[in-house]
Design brief:
By secondary structure, this protein is of the alpha+beta class.
């Protein structure tokens, strides 16, 4: 159920955000009990009064939204189609209050903009290589867009970055759409805490309106005055957040963790790295360890003994990966807590440390879970191990 509240002007006059909210209202939209604030150097949406779960906070009409629907005839991806639409809007002077509120290319840095020295701070060689490979991929994408627009390469590159960092995806079951939604895209990312059996269904905060064109933002839970309105951009962990949005999220014990964990070849009994973090990756890692044990002469052992061996080997690999790291979770957490917000490089250093802390905490959590299974007495089955790994990502 969506509860509609009376709109309360809360955007500071003279700011781009105030012009944006005024424009949305003038075009027939709704901006309710929200305001823009900058806290700890980060701009976000906050409620001005207590709101209930399901209460309508913002409704943006179609005339304020830049959208693209999937259309194979153009030979462009959905992201590239929206990039072309944004360039077109800028060329024609459409949605000007929204364009005025968007950052410059330099104002939306991603992991691919980090120097080699900064990438080394991640202590994650695979992620660093992905970041280094991203500029050629983006450049090729922009080149595919340019024949369809009348704009300089720098404008297309800017539009691609805005789409990558701000666009929202909608799948109606009939069509796939990507949209840039003013005001709503001021909301920051947060992974919501796990739901208890008493919480009921978690509300989806952003959805298409009943007309299939407008976009509504509702409170997904009760919020007190001054609390932040957040969305969940992805359920894929900090590696993807850094690559596509330029930040990392600190995960607490009450939140599901979607980190992709890489167990390097030197940390496993195999000649190759293992990955954990999705049902497919978990299954592949468990199968690889089982094959290794069988090839090592354990083929004649009982299934229970093989399962125990796989569980033990995976726990040992997680612990070996933690030992391989040049710093510990505790050392990283202490440095993170001591960082000054005013330091020029604090943002990237903070993101690198946050990434490292969450990675190491999850490695330790997986190892502890596996040891708990082994300590239960009976041999843990492969299905049990897979279920426990999945449980670390569960939102329930």
């Amino acid at each position: 159920m969506i509860v509609v509240a009376v709109a309360i002007p809360a955007f500071s006059p003279g700011t781009p955000e105030h012009a944006l909210a005024t424009w949305v209202r003038r075009e027939g939209g709704f901006v309710g009990k929200v305001r823009v604030e900058t806290r700890d150097g980060l701009r976000g949406l906050f409620v001005t009064e207590p709101v209930r779960a399901g209460e309508l906070l913002v409704s943006v009409p179609p005339g304020c939204i830049v959208s693209a629907d999937e259309d194979p005839q153009w030979g462009l991806s959905l992201r590239e189609l929206l990039t072309a639409r944004l360039v077109g809007a800028r060329t024609r002077g459409q949605c000007q209050p929204y364009l005025d509120s968007l950052p410059t290319l330099d104002g939306a840095p991603l992991l691919c903009d980090w120097s080699d020295e900064e990438l080394e701070q991640l202590q994650a060689a695979e992620l660093a290589e992905l970041a280094r490979g991203m500029p050629p991929f983006v450049a090729a994408s922009c080149e595919r867009v340019r024949p369809y627009v009348q704009a300089e390469a720098s404008v297309v590159e800017w539009a691609e970055r805005m789409v990558r960092t701000r666009a929202m995806f909608f799948d109606t079951g009939v069509s796939r759409r990507m949209s840039l939604v003013p005001v709503v895209d001021l909301a920051n990312h947060r992974t919501p805490p796990r739901r208890s059996a008493m919480d009921g269904e978690l509300l989806e905060p952003v959805a298409l309106g009943s007309d299939g064109e407008s976009v509504a933002l509702v409170a997904r839970s009760d919020l007190r005055t001054g609390e932040e309105v957040c969305l969940t951009y992805r359920h894929e962990g900090n590696g993807q957040l850094l690559l596509h949005y330029g930040f990392a999220e600190m995960i607490c014990a009450d939140q599901p963790c979607f980190e992709t964990l890489r167990l390097g070849a030197s940390s496993t009994p195999l000649a190759a790295a293992l990955h954990l973090g999705s049902d497919e990756a978990d299954a592949a890692a468990l199968a690889a360890l089982r094959r290794h044990l069988v090839d090592g002469g354990a083929e004649g052992e009982a299934v229970s003994a093989l399962d125990t061996g796989v569980c033990s080997a995976l726990a040992a690999a997680c612990e070996a990966e933690l030992r391989r790291m040049p710093t510990s979770e505790e050392e990283d957490a202490r440095e993170l807590a001591s960082l000054s917000l005013s330091a020029d490089d604090a943002g990237r250093r903070r993101s690198a440390l946050t990434f490292r802390v969450v990675q190491k905490a999850q490695l330790a959590r997986v190892a502890q879970m596996l040891h708990s299974l082994l300590a239960c007495g009976g041999a843990p089955t492969a299905a049990q191990v897979a279920a426990e790994l999945r449980g670390l990502r569960s939102e329930d």
